[in-house]
Amino acid sequence: MKNYLPLCLVAFTLMACSSSQNKSKTTANAETYAKTITAAELKDMLYTYASDDFEGRKTGEPGQKKAIEFIKQGYVANGIPSPIAEGDYFQEIPASFFKGDTKASENVLAYIKGSEKPDEIIIVSAHLDHIGISKNGDINNGADDDGSGTVAVMEIAEAFKQAADKGFGPKRSILFLHVTGEEIGLYGSRYYADEDPVFPLANTVANLNIDMIGRVDPKHENNENYLYLIGADKLSKELHEISESINKQYTKIDFDYTYNDENDPNRFYYRSDHYNFAKNNIPVIFYFNGTHADYHKPSDTPDKIRYDLLETRARLVFYTAWELANRDERLKLD
Protein backbone atom coordinates (compact mmCIF):
# COMPACT_ATOMS: atom_id res chain seq x y z
CA MET A 1 0.00 0.00 0.00
CA LYS A 2 1.39 3.40 -0.99
CA ASN A 3 1.76 6.14 1.57
CA TYR A 4 0.17 9.42 0.56
CA LEU A 5 1.11 12.78 2.02
CA PRO A 6 -1.78 14.94 3.25
CA LEU A 7 -2.82 17.48 0.62
CA CYS A 8 -1.91 20.41 2.88
CA LEU A 9 1.62 19.04 3.34
CA VAL A 10 1.99 18.48 -0.41
CA ALA A 11 0.88 22.05 -1.06
CA PHE A 12 3.28 23.39 1.58
CA THR A 13 6.17 21.37 0.15
CA LEU A 14 5.48 22.61 -3.36
CA MET A 15 5.25 26.22 -2.17
CA ALA A 16 8.50 25.95 -0.20
CA CYS A 17 10.24 24.36 -3.17
CA SER A 18 8.91 27.04 -5.52
CA SER A 19 9.98 29.81 -3.14
CA SER A 20 13.47 28.33 -2.87
CA GLN A 21 13.74 28.04 -6.65
CA ASN A 22 12.57 31.62 -7.15
CA LYS A 23 15.10 32.89 -4.61
CA SER A 24 17.85 30.92 -6.30
CA LYS A 25 16.81 32.28 -9.69
CA THR A 26 16.76 35.85 -8.35
CA THR A 27 20.26 35.41 -6.94
CA ALA A 28 21.53 34.00 -10.22
CA ASN A 29 19.99 36.89 -12.14
CA ALA A 30 21.50 39.47 -9.81
CA GLU A 31 24.95 37.97 -10.27
CA THR A 32 24.54 37.81 -14.05
CA TYR A 33 23.75 41.49 -14.41
CA ALA A 34 26.16 42.69 -11.72
CA LYS A 35 28.92 41.32 -13.94
CA THR A 36 27.99 43.88 -16.61
CA ILE A 37 29.36 46.57 -14.26
CA THR A 38 33.02 46.53 -15.22
CA ALA A 39 36.16 48.44 -14.36
CA ALA A 40 36.84 48.97 -18.06
CA GLU A 41 33.51 50.70 -18.75
CA LEU A 42 33.75 52.77 -15.57
CA LYS A 43 37.25 53.89 -16.57
CA ASP A 44 36.21 54.76 -20.10
CA MET A 45 33.36 56.97 -18.88
CA LEU A 46 35.30 58.61 -16.08
CA TYR A 47 38.22 59.62 -18.27
CA THR A 48 35.71 61.65 -20.27
CA TYR A 49 33.58 62.89 -17.39
CA ALA A 50 36.56 64.04 -15.29
CA SER A 51 38.49 65.52 -18.23
CA ASP A 52 39.54 69.14 -18.63
CA ASP A 53 36.77 69.58 -21.22
CA PHE A 54 34.25 69.62 -18.37
CA GLU A 55 36.06 72.48 -16.60
CA GLY A 56 35.44 71.12 -13.11
CA ARG A 57 31.63 70.95 -13.53
CA LYS A 58 30.89 74.02 -11.40
CA THR A 59 27.17 74.47 -10.82
CA GLY A 60 25.52 76.54 -13.55
CA GLU A 61 28.68 76.93 -15.62
CA PRO A 62 29.42 75.62 -19.16
CA GLY A 63 31.34 72.58 -17.90
CA GLN A 64 28.37 71.50 -15.81
CA LYS A 65 26.15 71.81 -18.89
CA LYS A 66 28.53 69.46 -20.72
CA ALA A 67 28.27 67.08 -17.77
CA ILE A 68 24.49 66.84 -17.85
CA GLU A 69 24.52 66.31 -21.60
CA PHE A 70 27.05 63.48 -21.16
CA ILE A 71 24.81 61.82 -18.56
CA LYS A 72 21.70 62.27 -20.69
CA GLN A 73 23.31 60.78 -23.77
CA GLY A 74 24.41 57.78 -21.73
CA TYR A 75 20.81 57.08 -20.78
CA VAL A 76 19.54 57.69 -24.29
CA ALA A 77 22.13 55.29 -25.71
CA ASN A 78 20.98 52.57 -23.31
CA GLY A 79 17.28 53.17 -23.91
CA ILE A 80 16.61 54.21 -20.33
CA PRO A 81 13.80 56.80 -20.29
CA SER A 82 13.20 59.91 -18.22
CA PRO A 83 10.30 60.04 -15.74
CA ILE A 84 9.76 63.74 -16.53
CA ALA A 85 8.74 63.53 -20.19
CA GLU A 86 9.92 61.71 -23.27
CA GLY A 87 13.40 62.95 -24.12
CA ASP A 88 13.44 65.45 -21.23
CA TYR A 89 15.95 64.27 -18.63
CA PHE A 90 16.58 67.64 -16.95
CA GLN A 91 14.86 68.90 -13.82
CA GLU A 92 15.33 72.64 -14.17
CA ILE A 93 16.38 74.58 -11.06
CA PRO A 94 16.07 78.38 -11.36
CA ALA A 95 18.87 80.71 -10.35
CA SER A 96 16.56 82.17 -7.68
CA PHE A 97 16.76 78.88 -5.75
CA PHE A 98 20.49 79.29 -5.21
CA LYS A 99 22.24 81.79 -2.99
CA GLY A 100 24.72 84.24 -4.42
CA ASP A 101 25.35 84.54 -8.12
CA THR A 102 24.98 80.85 -9.04
CA LYS A 103 23.25 80.42 -12.37
CA ALA A 104 20.31 78.16 -13.14
CA SER A 105 21.20 74.49 -13.12
CA GLU A 106 19.75 71.02 -13.63
CA ASN A 107 19.34 67.63 -12.03
CA VAL A 108 19.35 64.66 -14.41
CA LEU A 109 16.72 61.95 -13.95
CA ALA A 110 16.26 58.54 -15.57
CA TYR A 111 14.24 55.55 -14.38
CA ILE A 112 13.13 51.99 -14.89
CA LYS A 113 9.46 51.36 -14.14
CA GLY A 114 8.65 48.59 -11.71
CA SER A 115 6.82 45.54 -13.00
CA GLU A 116 4.67 44.84 -9.92
CA LYS A 117 4.90 47.84 -7.56
CA PRO A 118 5.64 50.75 -9.94
CA ASP A 119 4.48 53.39 -7.45
CA GLU A 120 7.14 52.39 -4.93
CA ILE A 121 10.51 54.02 -5.69
CA ILE A 122 14.13 53.19 -4.92
CA ILE A 123 16.46 56.16 -5.57
CA VAL A 124 20.10 55.62 -6.51
CA SER A 125 21.85 58.99 -6.46
CA ALA A 126 25.15 60.84 -6.92
CA HIS A 127 26.03 64.50 -7.40
CA LEU A 128 27.12 65.58 -10.85
CA ASP A 129 28.84 68.87 -9.97
CA HIS A 130 32.28 69.73 -8.64
CA ILE A 131 34.11 72.94 -7.65
CA GLY A 132 35.18 74.23 -11.06
CA ILE A 133 38.37 76.13 -11.87
CA SER A 134 40.75 77.49 -9.22
CA LYS A 135 41.72 81.17 -9.19
CA ASN A 136 45.10 80.29 -10.68
CA GLY A 137 43.39 78.58 -13.62
CA ASP A 138 43.84 74.96 -12.51
CA ILE A 139 40.89 72.71 -13.31
CA ASN A 140 39.48 70.64 -10.45
CA ASN A 141 38.44 67.52 -12.33
CA GLY A 142 36.71 65.80 -9.40
CA ALA A 143 37.36 62.26 -10.61
CA ASP A 144 36.60 60.77 -7.21
CA ASP A 145 34.36 63.62 -6.05
CA ASP A 146 31.97 62.71 -7.49
CA GLY A 147 32.85 61.45 -10.91
CA SER A 148 33.19 58.01 -9.37
CA GLY A 149 29.63 58.11 -8.07
CA THR A 150 28.25 59.53 -11.30
CA VAL A 151 29.63 56.80 -13.55
CA ALA A 152 28.72 54.14 -10.96
CA VAL A 153 25.06 55.21 -11.06
CA MET A 154 25.12 55.11 -14.87
CA GLU A 155 26.62 51.61 -14.88
CA ILE A 156 24.11 50.40 -12.27
CA ALA A 157 21.29 51.77 -14.42
CA GLU A 158 22.65 49.97 -17.48
CA ALA A 159 22.78 46.69 -15.54
CA PHE A 160 19.15 47.05 -14.46
CA LYS A 161 18.14 47.90 -18.02
CA GLN A 162 19.84 44.82 -19.42
CA ALA A 163 18.03 42.71 -16.84
CA ALA A 164 14.69 44.34 -17.72
CA ASP A 165 15.26 43.74 -21.42
CA LYS A 166 15.63 40.03 -20.66
CA GLY A 167 12.41 39.92 -18.66
CA PHE A 168 13.94 40.45 -15.20
CA GLY A 169 12.87 44.02 -14.54
CA PRO A 170 12.64 45.22 -10.93
CA LYS A 171 9.34 44.85 -9.08
CA ARG A 172 9.64 48.42 -7.79
CA SER A 173 10.62 51.43 -9.87
CA ILE A 174 14.18 52.70 -9.67
CA LEU A 175 15.06 56.37 -10.10
CA PHE A 176 18.61 57.19 -11.13
CA LEU A 177 19.08 60.70 -9.78
CA HIS A 178 22.07 62.90 -10.60
CA VAL A 179 21.87 66.07 -8.53
CA THR A 180 23.57 69.41 -9.02
CA GLY A 181 24.77 71.98 -6.50
CA GLU A 182 26.01 69.50 -3.88
CA GLU A 183 29.33 71.26 -3.44
CA ILE A 184 27.66 74.58 -2.66
CA GLY A 185 25.08 73.27 -0.21
CA LEU A 186 23.16 70.15 -1.34
CA TYR A 187 20.94 72.31 -3.54
CA GLY A 188 19.95 69.77 -6.19
CA SER A 189 18.79 67.10 -3.76
CA ARG A 190 17.02 69.73 -1.67
CA TYR A 191 15.22 71.00 -4.74
CA TYR A 192 14.07 67.49 -5.61
CA ALA A 193 12.99 66.66 -2.04
CA ASP A 194 11.51 70.00 -0.98
CA GLU A 195 10.29 71.65 -4.18
CA ASP A 196 9.62 69.11 -6.91
CA PRO A 197 9.68 65.42 -5.96
CA VAL A 198 8.90 63.78 -9.28
CA PHE A 199 7.78 60.73 -7.32
CA PRO A 200 5.97 61.34 -3.99
CA LEU A 201 8.30 61.09 -1.01
CA ALA A 202 5.69 58.96 0.74
CA ASN A 203 6.22 56.34 -1.97
CA THR A 204 10.02 56.53 -1.82
CA VAL A 205 11.31 53.39 -0.13
CA ALA A 206 15.02 54.20 0.21
CA ASN A 207 17.87 56.32 -1.12
CA LEU A 208 21.26 54.77 -1.89
CA ASN A 209 23.65 57.71 -2.29
CA ILE A 210 27.14 57.39 -3.75
CA ASP A 211 29.68 60.14 -3.10
CA MET A 212 33.36 59.23 -3.65
CA ILE A 213 33.93 55.49 -4.04
CA GLY A 214 37.01 55.33 -6.27
CA ARG A 215 39.97 55.84 -3.93
CA VAL A 216 41.62 54.61 -0.74
CA ASP A 217 42.03 56.88 2.28
CA PRO A 218 45.19 56.85 4.46
CA LYS A 219 43.55 54.78 7.18
CA HIS A 220 42.99 51.83 4.85
CA GLU A 221 46.23 51.69 2.86
CA ASN A 222 46.87 48.22 4.28
CA ASN A 223 43.26 47.07 3.78
CA GLU A 224 41.95 48.43 0.50
CA ASN A 225 38.85 46.24 0.34
CA TYR A 226 36.77 48.56 2.52
CA LEU A 227 34.01 51.16 2.32
CA TYR A 228 32.52 53.60 4.79
CA LEU A 229 28.76 53.22 5.25
CA ILE A 230 26.82 56.03 6.84
CA GLY A 231 23.17 56.23 7.85
CA ALA A 232 21.99 52.68 7.13
CA ASP A 233 20.66 52.13 10.66
CA LYS A 234 19.44 55.65 11.41
CA LEU A 235 15.86 55.16 10.22
CA SER A 236 15.57 51.45 9.45
CA LYS A 237 17.38 48.66 11.26
CA GLU A 238 16.08 46.39 8.52
CA LEU A 239 17.98 48.37 5.88
CA HIS A 240 21.18 47.92 7.87
CA GLU A 241 20.56 44.19 8.16
CA ILE A 242 19.81 43.86 4.43
CA SER A 243 22.94 45.82 3.57
CA GLU A 244 25.09 43.57 5.74
CA SER A 245 23.50 40.41 4.36
CA ILE A 246 23.91 41.47 0.72
CA ASN A 247 27.57 42.31 1.26
CA LYS A 248 28.23 39.00 3.01
CA GLN A 249 26.57 37.11 0.17
CA TYR A 250 28.08 38.90 -2.81
CA THR A 251 30.89 41.42 -2.37
CA LYS A 252 32.54 40.79 1.03
CA ILE A 253 33.78 44.34 1.51
CA ASP A 254 34.93 45.37 4.99
CA PHE A 255 32.38 47.96 6.09
CA ASP A 256 33.75 50.76 8.25
CA TYR A 257 31.10 52.52 10.37
CA THR A 258 33.42 55.12 11.91
CA TYR A 259 31.58 58.03 10.35
CA ASN A 260 28.18 56.60 11.28
CA ASP A 261 28.85 57.51 14.90
CA GLU A 262 26.42 60.11 16.26
CA ASN A 263 29.42 61.98 17.67
CA ASP A 264 31.47 61.95 14.46
CA PRO A 265 33.10 65.42 14.37
CA ASN A 266 33.11 65.36 10.56
CA ARG A 267 29.30 65.15 10.50
CA PHE A 268 29.38 63.38 7.13
CA TYR A 269 25.82 62.15 7.70
CA TYR A 270 24.66 65.73 7.14
CA ARG A 271 27.06 66.58 4.32
CA SER A 272 25.91 64.70 1.24
CA ASP A 273 22.68 64.46 -0.71
CA HIS A 274 21.16 61.52 1.14
CA TYR A 275 20.45 63.86 4.05
CA ASN A 276 17.67 65.65 2.17
CA PHE A 277 15.89 62.30 1.97
CA ALA A 278 16.73 61.21 5.51
CA LYS A 279 15.22 64.41 6.92
CA ASN A 280 11.98 63.32 5.22
CA ASN A 281 12.07 59.93 6.99
CA ILE A 282 13.34 58.02 3.96
CA PRO A 283 15.92 55.36 4.91
CA VAL A 284 19.32 56.01 3.36
CA ILE A 285 22.77 54.59 2.88
CA PHE A 286 25.70 56.86 2.08
CA TYR A 287 28.61 55.03 0.39
CA PHE A 288 31.95 56.78 0.84
CA ASN A 289 35.67 55.95 0.59
CA GLY A 290 36.75 58.77 2.91
CA THR A 291 38.86 61.80 2.08
CA HIS A 292 42.39 61.75 0.70
CA ALA A 293 45.24 64.11 -0.14
CA ASP A 294 43.60 65.11 -3.44
CA TYR A 295 40.20 65.98 -1.98
CA HIS A 296 38.97 69.23 -3.59
CA LYS A 297 42.26 69.72 -5.39
CA PRO A 298 43.17 69.77 -9.10
CA SER A 299 45.06 66.51 -8.49
CA ASP A 300 41.81 64.53 -8.06
CA THR A 301 42.26 63.05 -11.53
CA PRO A 302 41.00 59.84 -13.21
CA ASP A 303 44.44 58.22 -13.34
CA LYS A 304 44.35 57.94 -9.52
CA ILE A 305 41.09 56.02 -9.38
CA ARG A 306 41.25 52.37 -8.34
CA TYR A 307 38.92 50.97 -10.97
CA ASP A 308 38.98 47.48 -9.49
CA LEU A 309 37.63 48.87 -6.22
CA LEU A 310 35.16 51.12 -8.04
CA GLU A 311 33.78 48.07 -9.84
CA THR A 312 33.27 46.09 -6.63
CA ARG A 313 31.72 49.01 -4.77
CA ALA A 314 29.34 49.82 -7.64
CA ARG A 315 28.30 46.18 -7.75
CA LEU A 316 27.55 46.34 -4.02
CA VAL A 317 25.13 49.22 -4.58
CA PHE A 318 23.57 47.36 -7.50
CA TYR A 319 23.02 44.22 -5.41
CA THR A 320 21.51 46.28 -2.58
CA ALA A 321 19.19 48.14 -4.94
CA TRP A 322 18.23 44.84 -6.58
CA GLU A 323 17.22 43.38 -3.22
CA LEU A 324 15.26 46.46 -2.15
CA ALA A 325 13.48 46.62 -5.50
CA ASN A 326 12.54 42.94 -5.67
CA ARG A 327 11.74 41.86 -2.12
CA ASP A 328 8.10 41.07 -1.35
CA GLU A 329 7.61 43.55 1.47
CA ARG A 330 8.46 47.21 1.45
CA LEU A 331 11.40 48.18 3.66
CA LYS A 332 10.25 48.84 7.22
CA LEU A 333 10.76 52.26 8.79
CA ASP A 334 11.54 52.16 12.51
TrEMBL record:
Presence of keyword Signal: yes
GO MF terms, alphabetically ordered: metalloexopeptidase activity
InterPro entries, per the entry: EF_Hand_1_Ca_BS, M28_fam, Peptidase_M28
Signal peptide coordinates: 1-22
Organism: Algibacter lectus
Protein's GO biological process: proteolysis
Keywords tagged on the record: Signal
Alphabetized PROSITE patterns for the sequence: EF_HAND_1 (PS00018), PROKAR_LIPOPROTEIN (PS51257)
Pfam families for this protein: Peptidase_M28
Name listed for the protein in its UniProt record: Peptidase M28-like protein
Peptidase M28 domain boundaries: 107-319
